[in-house]
Structure prediction request, 465 residues.
Amino acid sequence: MAPPSPESPSGVPARDRAVAFAFVAAWAWLAIRSRAPEGASLVEFAVVVGISVVAAAFASLGPRPAARRLVLAAAVVAHGVAVLGEPILEDDPARYLWDGYVFAERGSPYGIAPSAWFEDDSLPPAWQEILSDVNHPELPTIYGPAQQWLHRAALAVAPGEVWPLQLAAALASVALVLGLAPLVAPRVLPWLAWSPLLLKEGALTAHHDVLGVHAIVGASRVLDARPFAAGVLLALAIGIKPFAALAVPFLLWRSPAGVAGCGLASLALVLPFAGSDLGADSLAAMARGGWFNAPVQLAAVELVTPGLVQAACAIALALGVAWFGWQEVRGVRAPASLPRGDLWFGWMLLWSPVLNPWYAIWPLAFAAVHPTRTAWVASVALLGSYAHGLQLGAPSLGPYEIPVWASWLQFAPIAVAFAWDWRRPLRVSSRGRGEAGAACRGSGPAPAGPSWEGATRSGAIPRRR
Prediction:
């Protein structure tokens, strides 16, 4: 064991403590700015993202990574501070609050658009103000049944307040980080624990994708010992985001008890809303309305018809899922380990017609255990999609139209990271010393590491020897 640093009686180097303080202070400042009448600007948010990335780099690089307890403590404090702020650059929280209100008033949030209340003079003033902030008011809600119960619970705790939803997302993020910490190499942990994506989209903006991700990670960990419980957790994830169903065939293909748990829990979630479409019609209407931040579709539509683009993307998605499924069937995964969810969800997002930044949380948790440069660069770069017409105030852009420079700012770094990963796959030892594909290229021995190392470029799970 290394002796305590002479710079600190606690053994934590002063540099590491300064970096952790700067990281927490940046998010405290953003939370304060978010409560200003004008709110935090896109530039201010970009500054905090930059500070977070630099802080994570300092904490992970150098002769020795920052102490695990310091990294985790700073993450917990930063999430607590972010909850004290107001959602920024987003209007989705208004829809969450409105869904909770409609759920309580009507017994179901589905099947009726917010615009139906525009002429209702009996609506309390506070709810009239929330209604005015709801996006796409002409469409009924798109959110799943598990998330709707969360909206209603938040209404019971603090009607018309978003902080219960922020708190739920923050607790899920912190639990996810703490739960994965034992599996994550020391040099990778700061990138997960101090991720600006997790902080902004969870604790600050109350997007609940992190709850679904946490449920899938939990299902992966308990699948062998408690398959029925794993199925229930998967159902909860699907109830948060329907596309979480992508994980079902990968995790439950040889677990009848898991399938039973998933089916029964899904039935319990949807029965209270029997007869409704669970938001399917609104999702279809939004899909017909165009693409958002979808690089493949937006580039291909310049060459062929939209219908052909959609068909090609669906075929590519299906082929990729089939390939990853075959790799899962061929491989043998150690009990309680994480599968290659970073590949499944990353492939899905590549062909998705809508690529919101918080969707990147889904592959992020798996990328902490199966680190790739692509996943980590994407988790930061996709935050650039907030540079759209509504935030930039550019009269030449539509409300959610992203300028060409912002698309390049996102996808050029991701493409470079992918090419680098393909050329020299990233390997991180249990001691945290990163090695870029030395074993793969035959230039030296592979670094020692935990059992989750050694995934091939194809994503195959190594067999036991």
